[in-house]
Amino acid sequence: MRQDWTGFATANVPRYTSYPTAAQFGGDVGLTEALDWGGRTPARTPISAYLHVPFCEALCWYCGCHTTVPNGYDRIARYVSTVHREIDLWAEALGTHGGVGHLHFGGGSPNALSADDFFALTEHVRATLKVRDGAEIAVELDPRSLTAERVKAMAASGVNRASLGVQTLDPIVQKAVNRIQPREMVEDCVEALKIAGISAINVDLMYGLPHQTVADVIEVAEFCGYHQIKRVSVFGYAHVPWFAKHQRAIDEAALPGLKERATQADMAARALIAEGYVRIGLDHFALPSDPLAIAQREGRLRRNFQGYTDDPYETLIGIGPSSISAFREGYAQNTRRSDVWSEAIHDGRLPTDRGVAVGAEDRLRARAIEALMCNLRVDLDAVCAEMGAKPGALDEALTHMRDLADAGVCVIVGKTIVVPEDARMLVRNVAQAFDAYSVRDGQGKHAIAV
Ligand code: SF4
Q: What is the DSSP string of 18-58?
């Protein structure tokens, strides 16, 4: 990372997994909008569904997810029963649609669910929302609590992609973040999934953790190559203790500095490329045969709440507390409070309590941001034409990125903006020039760019 880019690298920038971002969500969107927007889903159009499981065996101190440690399985069982009812409410609200093309179980740790509960939930989604033939059914997994019985239930449920939270293989780092999972444990999970027929395996790798070194990120990259992991996401640890209170347990003095973080990210990328991975957008890597790499080659790469994806569907139903649903007309988020979420559902109401309406100008800016985040380049005239906007409608962004262009973080040729390879990690800074809310309201409390 160039020395003169330090100011950009330490700027607070959104991840742009949506636009407008969650920072714009407010209480003026609620049940009425969720029902209205959901009801407008076209009859034959496929949808995606996200099911949140907010439970974990133990809290990792770096975690920024909405999750808790349950006190026994009763609480999880009650949760599952309420989720069944929420699925029914969504099925009713959506009416006829083209079925679920992507089903994603996230968390928390979906493998906190018992084998029977996981199987029953998937069957319920099949019966009510309808799962399309060939749909991707993906699940995020915590290696520490993955049992043979659960793997079997997932395979029987049609799960065809699994994402393992690995992050680091260094025992010292694992101890410093309260996530102890020896290398052999992760290897056993990979093998168990493959034997069960779930061979599309993703791994999350982190850099910037306390006591972490370049050697550790290289070890994880080589581990991925050796086991032919299909996709690897490389995330910088975002230290936001004002938001994620348990991050206060992390020893700030042991956190790598900016220069070291940038080196770790760079070395992770080099090691993954040496293992045969293709670089995808800001922070993903995939084997060339993986659908994500193919989508990138064919210009079909998209970005959603899970990061980079080949999921093309506009409608996403979010199930569980804090989950976000996306519609053409806007985003609708479920309440984060489990008790309020449960009460609403048992009263027969969808638990939406905030969100944001998305207008034509938002959609135009969102498309420019997505194109830039996916391809590291965007042709403003092409985006305006694609979105039916008048030529020049995005030109104002060129002014907002002038300092970035002057510093070499992006190159502007006519109306095309290109982020050079050495500035890839700053692509969000360039995308921010299209963000009308960020330009108006300032940087907000996002994590730093690198
Ligand atoms: S297992 Fe995942 S979701 Fe759970 S605390 Fe750790 S990082 Fe967070």
A: SSS-GGG-BTT--HHHHHHHHHTS-TT--EEEEEEE-B-SS
The domain defined by 360-441 folds into: Arc Repressor Mutant, subunit A (1.10.10)
What would the mean pLDDT of 122-142 be, rounded to a whole number? Answer: 97
pLDDT tens string 261-292: 999 999 999 999 999 999 999 999 999 999 99
Residue nearest to atom 6 of ligand 1 (CA): 60
What is the predicted pLDDT for the residue at 58? 87
* pLDDT tens figures, 245-257: 889 999 999 999 9
Domain with CATH 3.80.30.20 in the chain: 14-316
Cis (ω within 30 of 0) for the bond into 20? yes
Q: Which residues contact 380 (CB under 8 A, 6 or more apart)?
A: 368, 394, 395, 397, 398, 415, 416, 417
What is the spatial distance between Cα 51 and Cα 321, in angstroms, rounded to a whole number? 9
Q: What is the dihedral of CA 294, 295, 299, 305, to 10 degrees?
A: -150
Q: Where does ligand 1 bind, in terms of residues with CB under 6 Å?
A: 56, 59-60, 63, 65, 67, 107-109, 142, 165
Question: In angstroms, rounded to a whole number, what is the distance separating the alpha carbons of residues 100 and 98?
Answer: 7
User: Could you tell me the distance, in angstroms and rounded to a whole number, from the CA of residue 80 to the centre of ligand 1?
Assistant: 19
Across the range 124-153, mean pLDDT stands at 96
pLDDT tens track for 341-386: 999 999 999 999 999 999 999 999 999 999 999 999 999 999 999 9
Ligand 1 center from residue 68 Cα (angstroms): 9
In this predicted structure, what is the pLDDT of residue 426? 95
> 164 CA distance to ligand 1 centroid (A)?
11
Atom 8 in ligand 1: residue holding the nearest Cα? 63
Distance CA(284)–CA(277), nearest Å, equals: 10
Question: Is the domain covering 14-316 a CATH 3.40.190.10 domain?
Answer: no
Cβ-based neighbours of 277, under 8 Å, separated by 6 or more:
224, 225, 232, 285, 286, 287
Give Cα separations from 380 to 47, 365, 368, 397, 415 (angstroms). Answer: 28, 10, 7, 10, 5
